[in-house]
Write a structure and sequence with these properties.
With about 280 residues, the chain is of the alpha+beta class. The protein is about 20% helix and about 35% strand. The chain is built from 7 helices and 10 strands. The chain has an 8-stranded antiparallel barrel with strand order 1-3-4-6-7-8-9-10. Strand 1 and strand 2 form a beta hairpin. The longest helix has 25 residues. The chain is globular and about 50 Å long.
Length: about 280
C-alpha cells in the first residue's frame, strides 16, 4: 500500500464516526412520520374539553328555580289569621253570634259605672257620676241586633266629689237645680234598635227621657267580653262599654249657659248576668 493510500484509509476511519450522526438525521424523516405528525391529530380532543363547561353552565339552572318553592311557602301562614272562634265568625259589619244563653240579663251593680262630663268655662271637662241606676238586657245571642236594653237612673244619686261638703252640698245643688229631681224623679233610656258596625261593635239607638223631655239618642257600644260560665255564679255573662253625647238644651236645661257648655258626654261600663 502506498503512503497516499494509507492516509486515505486513515481519513475514512476518522471521518466515519463523524458522519454517522448526519446519516442518522438524513434517514430520520422516514421514522418520525407516525410520532410527531400525529400530534396535531388530537386537535379534535379539545372538542370534549370544550363541552365540559357546558354541563356546569346548565347546573345553575336548577338552583335558579329553587327559590320558587320558598316564594310560595309564606302563602300558608298568610291564611292562618282567617281562622276565627265561633263568637267572631261574622263578616265585618255584622254582629258575631255569641255562645251564651238567650234571655234576660240584669246589671251587676258591683261592676258598673255611669259618668258624665260637661265643659266648665271652656277650660276643662267637669266630671260627675250617678251611683244609683239599673239596666236590663233582653239578649238574642244568635242575632245580637235583635237585643234590647232599658235603663233607669235616680238623679238624686249624682256624685260630684266636691272637696268641701261641709261648706256646700254640691251634689244636692246639681240634682235639684240642674236635674230637678224633685219634679222628675227618674231618667230613663229605652233602646229602639241596635245596628252592628263590626263583629263586636254597634250603634244603639233609643229614646232618652230627661227633665220630662224625650229625645232620640245614639250610643256607640262595644262588647268587651262574654262567657257562658261566670266564675262566681256559673251563669252566662257579658260586659259592655258605651259612650255618647247629648245637648242639655235639647231637654230644656240652660242653667249657666256660657259658663257651662251645652254638650254633655256620657260613658257607661257594665257587666250583665243571666237572670
Amino acid at each position: 500500500m502506498t503512503v497516499s493510500a494509507k492516509w486515505m484509509a486513515l481519513g475514512l476511519i476518522v471521518a466515519l464516526p463523524a458522519a454517522m450522526p448526519l446519516m442518522a438525521q438524513e434517514s430520520a424523516p422516514e421514522t418520525p412520520a407516525p410520532a410527531t405528525a400525529a400530534q396535531p391529530a388530537p386537535a379534535p380532543a379539545p372538542a370534549p374539553a370544550a363541552s365540559t363547561p357546558v354541563a356546569p353552565a346548565s347546573t345553575p339552572v336548577a338552583p335558579a328555580s329553587t327559590p320558587v318553592a320558598p316564594a310560595s311557602t309564606p302563602a300558608a301562614p298568610a291564611s292562618t289569621p282567617a281562622r276565627t272562634t265561633t263568637s267572631e265568625a261574622a263578616p265585618a259589619g255584622q254582629a258575631a253570634p255569641l255562645t251564651i244563653a238567650a234571655g234576660d240579663y240584669v246589671l251587676d251593680k258591683t261592676h258598673a259605672s255611669l259618668t258624665w262630663k260637661i265643659k266648665h268655662l271652656g277650660l276643662s271637662w267637669y266630671t260627675a257620676r250617678f251611683t244609683s241606676f239599673d239596666a236590663n238586657v233582653r239578649l238574642d245571642p244568635q242575632t245580637v241586633t235583635n237585643s234590647s236594653v232599658s235603663v233607669t237612673i235616680d238623679p238624686k244619686s249624682v256624685r260630684t266629689d266636691y272637696p268641701f261638703p261641709e261648706k256646700e252640698d254640691f251634689d244636692k245643688v246639681i240634682s235639684e237645680k240642674f236635674l230637678k229631681s224633685g219634679e222628675f224623679p227618674t231618667i230613663t233610656f229605652q233602646s229602639t234598635s241596635l245596628v252592628a258596625t263590626d263583629t263586636s261593635e254597634g250603634k244603639l239607638h233609643g229614646n232618652l227621657t230627661l227633665l220630662g223631655v224625650t229625645k232620640p239618642v245614639t250610643l256607640d257600644v262595644k262588647l268587651v267580653g262574654a262567657t257562658d260560665k261566670h266564675p262566681m255564679n256559673e251563669k252566662s255573662a257579658f260586659g259592655i262599654h258605651a259612650k255618647g253625647e247629648i245637648k242639655r238644651s235639647d231637654f230644656g236645661q240652660t242653667e249657666l249657659q256660657g259658663v257651662l257648655g251645652d254638650e254633655i258626654k256620657l260613658e257607661i261600663n257594665g257587666e250583665f248576668i243571666a237572670k
